[in-house]
Design goal:
The chain is built from 15 helices and 14 strands. The chain has about 400 residues and is an alpha/beta fold. The protein folds into 2 domains: about 1-145, ATPase, nucleotide binding domain (Nucleotidyltransferase, domain 5); about 195-375, 2-Layer Sandwich (Nucleotidyltransferase, domain 5). The strands form 2 sheets. Strands 5-4-3-2-1-6-8-7 form an 8-stranded mixed β-sheet, sandwiched between helices. A 6-stranded mixed β-sheet has the order 11-10-9-12-14-13, sandwiched between helices. β3 and β4 form a beta hairpin. α10 (about 280-290) packs across α11 (about 290-315) and α11 (about 290-315) packs across α13. About 40% of the residues are buried.
């Protein structure tokens, strides 16, 4: 079965064509800078890579370009769009309406539209991707996979905020959590690796966006992100947890409005606000060369992760393994080291030599006799989306 995995952003379209159930990736690609005359289209088939700069003024033009390329004589992988049996769409926010992957119908689309207020930067683009795909891949089932769905197993004591009950019951204001596709994928890989009937795992997704999840026997019981994807850990440009009174102070002291505060916390804070840079590689290099702001930012980011590890160990009442994943989690031995420092009381004891080894496979990086496994597991959200789409259809 050919499944096209589609991740529609506000100005981008990422895609992979995956053969299921073998999980063979036939091609991958991305359309960037949608809405511009100099949009960038990149397509990879095995060792072949094709790139083009061209005007792509909207998502429909972008998706038609993808479909045409998939059928290209030289770099294509199918002869007809009818060979695609399903299109799996990443949808960021499912609210409390979606706790599992669903086949898209009118009701599903209406519900996604109703959730625009909860994810104004993501859900509208996600829905646009679905609606355009319906007109191009007419023989395919459209499948919606929600970032928040995996975390719907959280108990009420973990997701409810201490504000009047009406805001939860009438307006659904609560913690939802994000990066669920990634947390689900790596936690299942970790459970298989541990080969235990029961498990207590903390997954740490570190990229430009960062989040953690406490997972007991395959189900989330708590997560660091909440109502939106801004809180919790320190991220590339997002502040993570902040005292709400700081927001009111900034509004009053500097006469900032809601939009300005949102921009400050979403796009001007985090590692960027602390160092002037959002790329961890650049920050790490400058820290190694003595930049005090960069050294301080790394310590702040690691300390925030450590605090969540401690609280999640308490929530789980124990810990079998912690899992590092995503771009930074998989590739930055420095962040893994800073995170694991001084956690030996919890049984978390990093092996410095193992931590330096790079691999695309699952690997253990704890000391030989450490009580807690420290795992590095490459995430693959596209494969997870394809798996869930295939399971729904079967």
């Amino acid at each position: 079965m050919n499944i096209l995995v589609l991740n529609a952003g506000s100005s981008s379209l990422k895609y992979q064509l995956i053969e299921m159930p073998s999980e063979r990736v036939k091609c991958i690609g991305i359309v960037e800078r949608i809405g511009m005359n100099d949009a960038i289209f990149t397509h990879e088939k095995g060792s072949q890579e094709y790139s083009e700069v061209l005007p792509i003024l909207n998502h429909e033009i972008g998706l038609k370009k993808i479909a045409k390329t998939l059928m290209d004589d030289k770099i294509g992988v199918i002869n007809s769009v009818d060979e695609i049996e399903a299109v799996g769409h990443r949808v960021v926010h499912g609210g409390n309406k979606f706790s599992k992957t669903v086949i898209v119908n009118r009701e599903v689309k209406d519900n996604i539209r109703e959730l625009f207020d909860l994810a104004p930067l993501h859900n509208p683009a996600n829905l646009t991707g679905i609606e355009i795909a319906e007109t191009i891949f007419t023989s395919a089932k459209q499948i919606a996979i929600f970032d928040t769905a995996f975390h719907q197993t959280m108990p009420k004591k973990a997701y409810q905020f201490a504000i009047p009950n009406m805001y939860l019951h009438q307006h659904h204001i609560r913690a939802y959590g994000f990066h669920g596709t990634s947390h689900k994928y790596v936690s299942e890989k970790a459970t298989e690796f541990l080969n235990k009937k029961t498990s207590k795992i903390i997954t740490i997704h570190l990229g430009n966006g960062c989040s953690m999840a406490a997972i007991k026997d395959g189900k989330t019981i708590d997560t660091s992100m909440g109502f939106g994807p801004m809180n919790g850990l320190i991220m590339g440009t997002r502040s993570g947890d902040i005292d709400p009174s700081v927001i009111f102070f900034l509004m009053k002291k500097f006469d900032k409005n809601v939009e300005e505060i949102n921009k400050l916390l979403q796009k001007e804070s985090g590692m960027l606000g602390l160092t002037g840079h959002s790329d961890l590689r650049e920050i790490s290099e400058k820290a190694a060369n003595g930049d005090e702001n960069c050294k301080n930012a790394l310590q702040l980011a690691a300390y925030r992760i450590q605090k969540f590890i401690g609280s999640f160990v308490a929530a789980l009442n124990g810990i079998d393994a912690i899992v590092f994943t995503a771009g930074i989690g998989e590739n930055s031995d420095l962040m893994r080291k800073l995170t694991c420092d001084n956690l030996d009381f919890l049984g978390i004891d990093l092996d410095a030599k193992k931590n330096k080894i790079r691999s695309k496979e699952i690997r253990e990086i704890q000391k030989e006799n450490a009580k807690v496994k420290i795992l590095v597991i490459p995430t693959n959200e596209e494969i997870e989306i394809a798996k869930q789409s295939y399971q729904v259809l079967k």
